[in-house]
Amino acid sequence: MAGQEPREDLAGRLESQAEFVGSVTHALKGVLNGLQGGLYLLESGMSGNDARRVEGGAAMIKQNAARARSLVSNILYYARERQVLRENLVLREMVSRSVEACRPAAMERGIGLEASTEDGTFSADRAGVQALLCNLLELAAEQATGEANRESRSVRLRARMEPPWVIFEVAHGGTALDRETLAGALGPTFKPAGADRAGLWVHAARRVCEAHGGFLRVETLVPAGERFIAGLPGGGLQGGEPKNLSSG
Fold first, then answer.
1. How many Cα atoms are found within 13 Å in the side-chain-facing hemisphere of 118?
2. What are the pLDDT digits (tens) for 49-76?
3. Any residues with CB less than 8 A from the CB of 215 and at least 6 apart, and which?
4. Angle in degrees, 0-180, between the axes of helices 126-144 and 91-108, rounded to the nearest 10
5. Which residues pair with 233 in a beta bridge?
6. What does the alpha-carbon distance between residue 62 and residue 41 come to, in Å, rounded to a whole number?
7. Are 105 and 138 a contacting pair, CB within 8 Å?
8. DSSP string covering 130-159, please?
9. Is residue 14 packed enough to be buried (19+ CB in 10 Å), middle (13-18) or exposed (0-12)?
10. By the 8 A CB rule, do 79 and 207 touch?
């Protein structure tokens, strides 16, 4: 019947969602274990008047609360189409907030976050843009962890206005994502394997871009690393992509 999803597509979507539930369960288990560990340090530190343990426990709780927020946001974008609630956003402010939200987790891995942005405003969903940027920043920080030169391990975010688009580029010099995982994550459905957070991050970022009428591209860098390029239209749906995306 017209309007019904083909049986093969429906079966593939159900299989994808079943595997997704398994992946999310692994991720949630890690978050809950982290919260439990943080609470233990906090409580034992308070009872023993140990300021260092209290500080460590509070840091663990804060970090895992941030992971939980990111995970829930990704689940919402994966599981259903989220309504885009557009408002006028300040580009510099969105970049600053996203970088600061991700900095603690990056610092724990020994990764520095660098950001450069132009002045400008654009129309988009605030929560969606922050989820998009945090996904790409956290993913890049994790991939950059394996960078050989520990002195230069960093993630670089560049944001610019290219009317009618706003372009976000996140680059790192670490290990590029497995091509098979990346291809699946950039597709219409995604089947994560085990605790595959990297693929989930990319897929959720793609969903945010798609919901805005935008795009997400990934480029492999030489000699190592990769660049994620996300484009969002500043207002209304736009056709095509901007021609000059290279950051030089």
1. 13
2. 888 889 888 888 877 777 676 666 656 5
3. 209, 230, 231, 241
4. 30
5. 165
6. 13
7. yes
8. HHHHHHHHHHHHHHHTT-S-GGG-EEEEEE
9. exposed
10. no
Strands 86-90, 121-125: pairing is: antiparallel
* pLDDT tens-digit series, residues 136-183: 998 898 888 765 545 458 899 999 999 889 999 999 988 888 887 777
Strands (E), 102-207: 112-117, 121-125, 154-162, 165-172
Inter-residue long-range contacts of 241-247, CB under 8 Å, 24+ positions, other chains counted: 241/215, 242/162, 242/165, 242/167, 244/162, 245/167, 245/217, 247/158, 247/169, 247/171
Q: How confident is the model at residue 119 (pLDDT cuts 50, 70, 90)?
A: very high
> Cα(210)–Cα(240) distance, rounded to whole angstroms?
13
| Residue 28 pLDDT exceeds 60 | yes
* DSSP secondary structure letter of residue 18: H
| DSSP per-residue letters across 72-92 | HHHHHHHHSPPPP-EEEEEHH
Pairing assessment for the beta strands 154-162 and 112-117 based on DSSP bridges: parallel
Which single residue is written with the structure tokens 């492999």? 220
How far apart CA 170 and CA 142 sit, in angstroms, is 13
* Residue 242 structure tokens: 């901007």
For the entire predicted model, the pTM comes to: 0.69
Separation of first and last alpha carbons in the chain: 50
- Indicate the burial class of 6 (C-beta count within 10 angstroms; 0-12, 13-18, 19 or more): exposed
Pairing mode of beta strands 121-125, 226-233: unpaired
